[in-house]
Amino acid sequence: MKYFILNLILIIVFTTVTVSAQESNYPFYEQLAFNFYQDTILKSYPVKKKISLYPYRLDFKIHLKSLENPGCITGIDSNSQFKPFLTYETAQSNFDSGKLDLEVATINKHQFRIKKLHTKNRYPQLFITSPYLLNRDTDKVFVTIQQQNSETEGVNYHFVLTPKGTIIDWCRTEYSFYIEY
Q1: Distance CA 6, CA 167 (A)
Q2: Are strands 125-128 and 51-53 parallel, antiparallel or unpaired?
């Protein structure tokens, strides 16, 4: 019985160390996309008001609809071409991963309003998707930043990254829709 418990403890420790080592191999794709948005994109496409930013993930479930079909990226026709980056999702969902919250210490406080709760609709708001992979190609990681400017319009910034975290392409699409009562 003692040996069984000792073996069980060793298996749990070995599994935890192995999984932790595998999880740490991924860069924080959402942070890399946000840093590029803050440092590069806002210089070309400034926003007049402070942007509400939620530094944590709003949802721990994968939603392909949140990718918003990056048709401006060559070769992408529909969301059906994507699959969730499940190994990254699993690693990021671990509370010890350090990849649950964006690093906001170096954020431009004149440009962003850090929000703890999603309560009021104060626009513009910024939302960042979880990373996705193409069904046919795992050499590219896709992240979308949605800048919602009002209840009915906004801009999506689509980023293509390498698995190591280098941004190799990005594009911008505007959207608007009408609400009928």
Answers
A1: 46
A2: parallel
